[in-house]
Amino acid sequence: MRLRTVTGPTDHVIVVGAGFAGLTTALHLLGAGRRVTIVERGEHPGGRAGRLDLQTADGTYRVDTGPTVLTMPDLLDEALGAVGEKVSERLDLVELDPAYRTHFADGSTIDVHTDAGAMETEVRAVCGPDAAAGYVRMREWLGKLYRAEIDTFIGANFDSPLDLLGPDLVRLAALGGFGRLGPRVEGFLPDERLQRIFSFQALYAGVPPQTALGAYGVIAYMDTIAGVYFPKGGMRAVGQALADAAVAAGAEILYGRTVTGLERGAGRVTAVRHRATDDPLSASERTAADSFVLTPDLPVVHDLLGRAPRRVVPLRYSPSAVVLHAGLRTARGGRDEGGAAHHTISFGEKWRETFREIIDDGRLMTDPSLLITRPTATDPSLAPDGRDLLFVLAPCPNLAGRKGRGGPIDWERVGPAYRDELLGVLEARNHPGLDGIEGDIEVSHLVTPADWAAQGMAAGTPFSAAHTFAQTGPFRPRNLVRGYENVVLAGCGTTPGVGIPPVLLSGRLAAARITGPVPATGRGRRVPTGG
Q: Cβ neighbours of residue 280 under 8 Å, at least 6 residues apart?
């Protein structure tokens, strides 16, 4: 089946946004011989993978303000490979073991290992032989699910729902990809703690595990089997590496420039207009090109295009998150000293109620489940000597509200109190290495849905449009723009979706809409032993 592409010349392409999607698009375009100009409103690359420096008298805490979990780094290798480079030449990646440490309300702890043997041993020791046997079966299922989806569904452009038809669709259906994720995981794992570990990822797709498509088990595959990594220097190093490689391959990046409009005519965009981000009154400048890739969140894109596409059902957005960045006066120790892991998930006693509160009721969690990231466990240089750095994420309702459920939360008023509440929850749970945090904070920064909205994120959520059935695969907003012959979208709002791996893939898919199919490099396809 022939892939639809933009029409007309494509020699010079403007990419709006130097986030992971825009940079990946640029690398694939550069590898195909295109001239590329990137227009970025910030002063640094990375987009949602932002950076914040918290200064103290003793030094600087280097904070990552966006995603903290990096999986599928082979997709980075694929993008860099388009211009003849490798991840190992640009980044120092450390594979985390455990990928996560999980704590439960009953006082138990389960370390999540990506190695099959190590995880089977962990499950057997904590949950028993039946659970270990179920884990082995589920791991095999997740590997099959990933292989069935990665090229045909996740890594493919769709021009019509009919593009799904074929033997791969039958194979995915036979694996339970169109059933429900929660019941499927429960069928493998009798222990509710394990059910949580292998299904909580559905929240980032914007749906509860009980109603998420089984196909989204692929996120659990990426998290718990393919491996979790961290780049020395922080997640900001990823965006910088991609940008440096793009510049080395000939791209021009215009930092500190906000795109204010598109010049249009005869069904085509001919130029972007942009001004200095830090001076809203400055004169705009014009940059012309042949084709254009837009990577901001969907409402921003629709404003630039002058309209939003018609949908039978309005877009539904994922839950949001409150994030606390905290610099601590006291280092929390290494792994052998009982220190906190790089990634910790602190589960409350409630589970299904949590999803109902956040998604259906638009309320804060009454028994929070939290993601705590301690990047200094892997790279102590991110904090001043003898200090530590924490990232505490609490899922919460977005700003859209729910019909009949009242309006959004007043975050200016509620935010500081909720921060104190979350710290109190962690204090009461007394997890090893995470005790006494509240009184140890030297400097902090709180991010709420209101802050995400101020950055241009729809409904105040960094997780964009939810992955409901009506917003998945060919039903997700397309990366070709109807009515414009030379405009393509990339990023988490379009296909394939939310998360670093899908966003990196969105860049390849966007480039393919301009250059024609991008040859597979063989990277990004690794299925670990036992998977």
A: none
User: Cα–Cα distances in Å, from 206 out to 18, 68, 395?
Assistant: 25, 18, 10
Other CB atoms within 10 Å distance of the CB of residue 28: 26
d(CA 218, CA 208): 15
Taking a C-beta distance cutoff of 8 angstroms, is the pair 73, 87 a contact?
A: yes
Report the relative pairing of strands 291-294 and 268-276 from DSSP bridges.
unpaired
CA distances to 12, 176, 190, 503, 504 from 89, rounded to whole Å, are 27, 40, 44, 22, 19
In the numeric block, the tokens 């095999």 are attached to 140
Torsion of CA 100, 106, 108, 112, to 10 degrees: -30
Torsion of CA 210, 213, 215, 218, to 10 degrees: -50
* Structural domains for the chain: 12-49+232-314+465-515 (3.50.50.60), 116-225 (no CATH)
Any idea of the CA torsion for 434, 435, 441, 447, to the nearest 10 degrees?
Answer: 50
DSSP string across 173-189: HHTTTTSBHHHHHHHH-
Mean pLDDT in consecutive groups of 10 residues from the start of the chain, 531 residues: 87 98 98 97 96 95 96 96 96 96 96 97 97 97 91 79 71 85 93 94 82 87 94 97 98 97 94 95 94 95 87 85 96 72 95 88 93 96 96 94 62 96 95 91 97 93 88 84 95 92 96 81 38 41
